[in-house]
Design a protein that fits this description.
With 276 residues, the protein is an alpha+beta fold. The chain has 7 helices and 10 strands. The chain binds a DNA duplex (16 and 16 nucleotides) through helix 6.
Length: 276
DNA sequence: CATGACACCTGCTCGC
DNA sequence: TGCGAGCAGGTGTCAT
């Protein structure tokens, strides 16, 4: 479900509700979301732990705990982070994977229908460094240069859209925003990445940044079940030019937008006229 | 090392 | 109405 703007929105909304609070208790409904840790270790680390900071890295939420460990949530396709006033019951509890009442009232809930999301526990700086090193640069980092952004594209024979969604090249861009950015930059999504010159990649980076900023301002894109940290819908779906609009007229030239699943088996929507 | 295929899991929609 | 096929904002592993 969530790409960079959605996770950024969730983290911003939950930060004031969680930072400074401690998890009074923790329950976990399924073990299959755990990566690199066990139920016993994770629950032991979270019980009584106080949240010192809540940040976003790539499409993940990062909880810095007072123990020095970091608790990471990768929401995957259907994960949601919420802080209701009380622990969920009945239908609300159905897909709750992790429930942690807070010391000062309220409750932290990680809800995930498909459970493709993952929970990680990084116990020290070395573990954090290893996790961080596997991820590419943040696209909204003002220090990111076009040269750095362009490098993995210049080396790859893959479709430019696939590289754009590769979290080792640049983080945070998933299927929705890859489709949108490539349309805005006038780039054919199936074009081999290495065939794009530096100027074109500069345009692509600029469009990625513009669109991600705009999507954050709209609190993300709600197509199905994405909700912000306060349970609201995002609004960026009203500003999409191609994603989910196959068969409809291009908002730029009026042609019918095309759909293909040939790139990385993900839906790619594009305009034959505008993306050369 | 780069690349493609497939796995993880559940729910919804669409066509027959 | 029922049922199978296909699809869904992500990411990791495996063979080749």
């Amino acid at each position: 479900m969530p790409e960079l703007p959605e996770v950024e929105t969730i983290v911003r909304e939950l930060r004031p509700r969680l930072v400074g609070r401690a998890f009074a208790s923790v329950t976990l409904s399924h073990d299959d979301v755990l990566v690199g840790t066990t139920r016993r270790v994770l629950l032991g680390a979270l019980r009584g732990a106080r949240v010192q900071a809540l940040e976003r890295r790539a499409k993940h939420a990062v909880f810095r705990l007072d123990s020095g460990a970091r608790f990471i949530i990768q929401p995957g396709m259907s994960g949601a982070l919420l802080v209701p006033d009380a622990a969920p019951e009945g239908e609300d509890a159905r897909y709750a994977v992790l429930v942690a009442p807070l010391d000062a009232g309220g409750c932290f809930v990680y809800r995930d229908v498909r459970r493709l999301g993952n929970l990680l526990l990084l116990r020290d700086e070395a573990a954090w460094a290893a996790y961080d090193a596997r991820l590419g640069p943040e696209p909204l980092d003002p220090a990111l240069t076009v040269e750095r952004f362009a490098a993995p594209f210049r080396k790859s024979r893959q479709a430019v859209k696939k590289v754009l969604m590769d979290q080792r090249a640049v983080v945070g861009v998933g299927n929705i925003y890859a489709n949108e950015a490539l349309f805005a930059a006038g780039i054919d999504p199936s074009k081999p990445a290495r065939l794009l010159d530096e100027a074109r990649l500069g345009v692509l980076l600029a469009e990625v940044q513009r669109i991600l900023h705009a999507a954050i301002a709209s609190k993300g894109t709600t197509f199905r079940d994405y909700r912000t940290g306060t349970g609201e819908r995002g609004n960026f779906q009203l500003e999409l030019f191609v994603y989910g609009r196959e068969g409809e007229p291009c908002r730029n030239c009026g042609r019918r937008l095309a759909l293909t699943h040939l790139i990385d088996a993900r839906s790619t929507v594009f305009c034959w006229g505008c993306q050369g």
